Amino acid sequence: MLGGAAGAGGSGILGVLGLLKKLDITASVREDAVSLCPRARSNLRNLNNQIILKIEMIEARIFDTHKTVSEMRQKYVYFLLAAVGACIGFAVTQTSRLPLSIWSIPLAPALILWGASFLLGCRYIEQRANVITIRALLLERRQLELNNPNTELPPLPDTTEDLEAALKTLENRSSSSYKYQLVFFVSGTCFFLLWHIADMWRRIPEHMCLWV
Question: Transmembrane stretches, by residue range (predicted)?
Answer without folding.
Answer: 76-94, 100-120, 180-198
